[in-house]
Amino acid sequence: MFKTIKEALSFIESQRVKRSFEDFQKIVDRYHFNVNLKNVIHVAGTNGKGSTVTFIKDLLMTQGYHVGTFTSPYIIKHNERIAVDGKPISDLDLLRLINQLYPIIEKEHLSMFEIDTLIMLSYFNELDLDYHVIECGIGGLNDKTNVIQSKIAVITNIGYDHQFMLGNTLLDIACHKAGIIKERVPLFTTEKNQEILTYFQKVCKEKQSTFYHVEIPDSHHYPYPISFKENDYLLYLPSYQVDNLLLALHVVSSLIELKRGDIESVIEHFIWPCRFERFGSLYLDGAHNINGIMALIQTIKERNLEDVGIVFSSLIDKDGTKMLELLKNYDVMLADFEDERSQGGHISYQEAISIMKEKHKNVVVTGSLHFVSTVRQYVISA
After folding, report:
1. What are the residues whose beta carbons fall under 8 Å from the beta carbon of 304, sequence distance 6 or more?
2. What is the band of 85 on the pLDDT scale with cuts at 50, 70, 90?
3. Among 274, 278, 234, which Cα is nearest to 369's?
4. What is the band of 317 on the pLDDT scale with cuts at 50, 70, 90?
5. Residues 6+ apart with CB under 8 A from 230
6. Residue 340, pLDDT above cutoff 80
7. CA spacing 20 to 30 A to 217: which of 5, 106, 210, 352?
């Protein structure tokens, strides 16, 4: 049992040994966790999951609905993973639930993500929420969140990430993501690859699930024009948020009626840290895989950002070499940060940022969301 939240979270974040999905499902069943939450929207995909979850949550909240969200990783504080109406679970509730679940955690030797999933289920079952928007950690089929029963399945896109777990081809990865499609549960996706779309359609047919393909306009002019149900909007966010917003709009409009003013309000007030987030001449973007880096480069070009230097660091399970190859036209400095999984350079990120600010008009920090969130905390506290 833990006396402080700091002590409890230090323990949780040290638990890295994972088990199979089947074994975790047995634990969920053994201890009678209720996985039938009301109105679950389950979100998978390589990139854009967090933003899509936030757009869905914000759109539902404009109509007065209470929405629980489960996301990862966190930017500043572990509590962010489990939130209600955008407010992270309190230290008091989190500590209470960790202690409540500790006998199970200890007996079953649960990993951090498994613990968080059980805390999420316990917390949301205590509350009378209208909707629950749950983000997959990795993949979908064997992701520990897949113990839930969903109302809608959402797959943002398919790209190369976590190949050591999901497979080496896009179709292999798509097979894992499609694992969240349940019987008679509709699927919404913005994926563009026709082979993958055909596969998704096949799975939906087998599951008797309706397939919705959300088509994305080809626009490269900032601010980005968006049309939805005969209304036009402008998006003053990175270009990849066009996909995430339109996906969220189609998902939510299948559930409730959205008004133009509500959509405009969500667009205007949307905040998602570490997604091309600006602090003066410093930009933070958690482009943690190949598709993310490609989207970052597109955003830099479309914003006409001049004289850009890059501070980069990634985790050992990412393809840092290929990401760096994509950034070859920029001045890139490899940096290190305090994480045992870092594959950064031999210079601290603080020093790297200082050097690049002297050399360039604009500096972009990228390569890993964990890295970028660490830099964000440093920038805010400086």
Report:
1. none
2. very high
3. 274
4. low
5. none
6. no
7. 210
Is the CB of residue 190 less than 8 Å from the CB of residue 196? no
3-state helix, strand and coil shares in percent for the chain, rounded to the nearest 5? 45, 15, 40
Reference 379, options 283, 294, 296; nearest CA is 283
Put the strands of the sheet holding 277-279 in their side by side order: 277-279, 282-284, 362-366, 308-312, 331-334
The answer to whether residue 381 scores a pLDDT higher than 90 is no
Checking if the pLDDT of 107 tops 70, the result is yes
Contact 185, 208 (CB under 8 A): no
Phi, psi of 242 (to 5 degrees): -60, -45
User: Residue 337 class from Cβ within 10 Å (0-12 exposed, 13-18 middle, 19+ buried)?
Assistant: buried
At residue 256, the 3 state secondary structure works out as: coil
Other beta carbons less than 10 A from residue 381's beta carbon = 6
Bridge-based pairing state of the strands 277-279 and 282-284: antiparallel
The three-class DSSP label of residue 353 is: helix
pLDDT mean over 205-211: 98
In whole angstroms, give the CA distance from residue 188 to residue 212: 5
Q: Tell me, what's the pLDDT at 314? A: 83
- Work out the angle between the directed axes of helices 349-359 and 369-381 (0-180°, nearest 10): 80
The conformation of residue 184, written as its DSSP 8-state character, comes to T
* Torsion angle of the four alpha carbons 46, 52, 57, 62, in this order, in degrees rounded to the nearest 10: 180
| Domain annotation for the chain: domains and CATH numbers | 5-269 (3.40.1190.10), 277-381 (3.90.190.20)
